[in-house]
Amino acid sequence: MSEKPTLIHLVSSNRWGGAQKYAVDICSHFHKEGWDVTAMTRDAKVVDDRFRKVGINLLHAPLRGFFDPASAFILARRLRQVGHNNGYIHVHRYRDAFTALLAKRIAKRPDIRVISTRHTVRPGRNSWLFRRIYDKINAHIFVSRTAFERFKSPWPQRLPMRVSTVHIILNSVNTPYSLPTDPPEKGPIFALYIGPVVKGKGIETIIDALPSLRGLKLRLRICGTGNPDYLDELRRRAMARNVMEMIDWSRNEDKARDIISQSHFAVLPSVEREGFGLSNLLVMASGRPIICSPNGAQSEYLTDGETAIFVPPLSPSALADAMRTLATDNAMRTIIGNNAFKYYAKYLSWESFIPKLQKIYLTC
What we know:
Largest sheet: 7 strands, parallel
Helix content: 40-55%
Structural class: alpha/beta
Number of strands: 13
Strand order of the largest sheet: 3-2-1-4-5-6-7
Radius of gyration: 21 Å
Oligomer: single chain
Low-confidence stretches: none
Strand content: 15-25%
C-alpha cells in the first residue's frame, strides 16, 4: 500500500474544456507536492495528452455512469492499494460520484473520501438516487455562488446534503505568477476569443458584430479547439458577412498566456450561463480587459466599467459598441486591464486557491 496521500481524479468527458483544465491543474500541483496522483479517464487522447504532459499516471475505464459496474471494479482495485485514511477521489460529474461510491463499497474502503466539484449552472436532481449520492459525498465544491444557488433551487427548505459539506471556492488556474506585459504598439488592435470553440460561447455574436467595425484597424483572433463541422459553420458565417479577412483562426491553446499578451482585449460574450469561466481568469491574469456577458458567475469576480465591460448576450450591436470603445481608447484598455490583474492577484491567484482546496481534502 502507498503511504503517500493518494489523489484520483475521475474525468469522464472525452472533450477538453474548463472542468478538464481544472482537474489537470489540481493533479499537476499535488503531483509536484509528492502525492500519488492518478487520473481515471475514458482513454480520450485530447484529455489524456494533457495529463501525460504534466506527468500524471492514467487509469482507463468506460466511465459510463450508473449502468457501468466495470468502472467501479477497476477503481476498486486501485483503492485497495491506497494507505488507510490517505485516499481522495475527486469527481466532476455526479454520475462519476456514483462510480466512486460504488468502488468504495466494493473495495471495503469507507475511509476513502469523495470530493465533488460542480462546474455548471443547473438545478440538482431531486430523485431518491441523486439525493443518496449527494448525501454520501464527503465534500461538495461549487465554483461560484451562482452555481450553488442554481443547484439548490429544488430544495428551498433543506439541502439533500449536510451544510457542513458545502464549499464555494472561486476557480483559479495553475499558472506562474508574472506581471502583465504591454500589448503590441504597432499593427492592428487584436480582439481575442479564447476557449472551447463550441456552441453557446457567443462566437456567432462576435462574428455578427464585425461588419460594423470594418472601418477600424481591428482583427479578431479565435483561439481554441472544437468540432470541425462547427468550425466550418463559423467560417461560412464569416464569409456570408464578408469579414473573413478580419479573423485569424488558431488552435494553439497550449500557449494561452502568450496569445493573450499579444492581444489587446478579450471578447467572451457567452450565451450559456457559466459556473465560472476559466478563459476570463486567464485574461485577468495577463492584465487585459474583457468584454463579457454577465449571465452566469461573471459578476461575482468582475465589475462593469472597472475590471470588465458587460454586454447582454446575443446582441451584436452592443458588443460592437463595446469593441469599438476598447479598440479606440488605449487609456481605458490599460486602466481596466490593470484593475483586472490586481483583482486576480489579490483574490483569484493559484496561491490563494490551492490552500482552500487542500484544507477540504484533509478535513472532509
